[in-house]
TrEMBL record:
This is Raffinose/stachyose/melibiose transport system permease protein. GO terms for biological process: transmembrane transport. It is a multi-pass membrane protein. Keywords: Cell membrane, Membrane, Transmembrane, Transmembrane helix, Transport. It comes from Neobacillus niacini.
Length: 315
């Protein structure tokens, strides 16, 4: 539109299309958000149904006397939680699980790191060694338990007959050696998995840093302490937390190998909870033990994460 007057200059007015474009942009954003929500809806529903609802029901059942079969549930308050601290079997199983976790975390971390450093060096046949070390990860813990039961019970004792020795290779047969036997079996299976995480961390370290250290006169030990370890901080955090929490939840390996024996010397906390719920039909008491064990796991993981993250910053 053009306006002309006596003392006026020609003036034109243009109607902007910006408001319309903004509306279309908002519609596209809303449509995209709806698509994202629809994509997330199935796993979200599965998570709620499979995790959140059972967790809430388990917490509620821990305050009742439900046996897991009948429809009757009587509210008994904190009685189940009080009984936990009087349960010698729960305390013993927790001690065994704690020892298994401590030794497993140390051994698995050190061994995985060692193999990662070895494979990151200039040795020959790297792919062959990597495959051999990683292969047991693909096996089921049930199968691993059966393999090592056969190893300790039949294969290794044949060495005694061959060389006229009297070594007790059957580590699962004695309460004094059963923990060692389980540690060997568990580490044999999982070292390769954590080795790959350390190996990925080592290969991500820029080679320029090592070259600069060499120019400054640094030896291999100084490179290892001042470059390799600090740069592997995130990998160390991931491996330590993963190994520790996985060790606390050990179940299948023990069921397939020792069954918690000899006696109850290798019964883990998870195994004791399972036996209480399904063998003794004390579901409410087992729920209370599960809640306590879950809290211990969360507290332990939180402390580990805080300590290791702080250590990363210091390094």
């Amino acid at each position: 539109m053009r306006l002309e007057g006596k003392n006026t200059q020609p003036m034109s007015i243009t109607i902007s299309s910006k408001p319309t474009s903004i509306v279309h942009k908002k519609k596209r954003v809303n449509a995209r958000n709806i698509q994202y929500f629809l994509l997330l809806l199935p796993p979200l529903v599965f998570f709620i149904v499979a995790m959140i609802i059972p967790l809430i029901m388990g917490i509620y059942n821990s305050f009742t006397d439900w046996d897991g079969i009948s429809l009757e549930k009587n509210w008994i308050g904190f009685t189940n939680y009080i009984e936990i601290f009087k349960d010698e079997m729960f305390i013993e199983s927790f001690k065994f699980t704690g020892l298994f976790m401590i030794f497993n975390t140390i051994i698995q971390n050190v061994a995985a790191f060692f193999f990662a450093v070895m494979l990151d060096s200039s040795i020959k046949a790297k792919n062959f060694y990597r495959t051999i070390i990683f292969a047991p990860v693909l096996l089921s813990p049930i199968l691993v338990g059966q393999i090592w039961t056969k190893m300790y019970g039949t294969i290794l004792p044949s060495i005694n007959d061959l060389f006229a020795l009297s070594i007790n290779f059957n580590l699962f047969s004695s309460p004094n050696t059963v923990l060692t036997g389980l540690l060997v079996a568990n580490n044999w299976q999982w070292i390769g998995y954590w080795m790959l995480i350390y190996l990925a961390g080592l290969q991500a370290v820029p080679k320029d840093i090592y070259e600069a250290c060499t120019v400054d006169g640094g030896n291999w030990w100084q490179k290892f302490i001042h470059i390799t370890i600090p740069m592997l901080g995130p990998s160390i955090t991931i491996c330590t937390i993963g190994i520790a929490t996985g060790s606390l939840k050990v179940y299948e390996l023990i069921v397939a190998s020792t069954g918690g024996g000899p006696g109850d010397s290798s019964k883990s906390t998870i195994m004791h909870i399972y036996d209480t719920a399904f063998m003794s039909q004390q579901s409410s008491y087992a729920s209370a033990m599960s809640v306590v064990f879950l809290l211990v796991l969360l507290i332990f993981a939180f402390i580990q994460l805080k300590v290791l993250r702080k250590r990363e910053v210091e390094l």
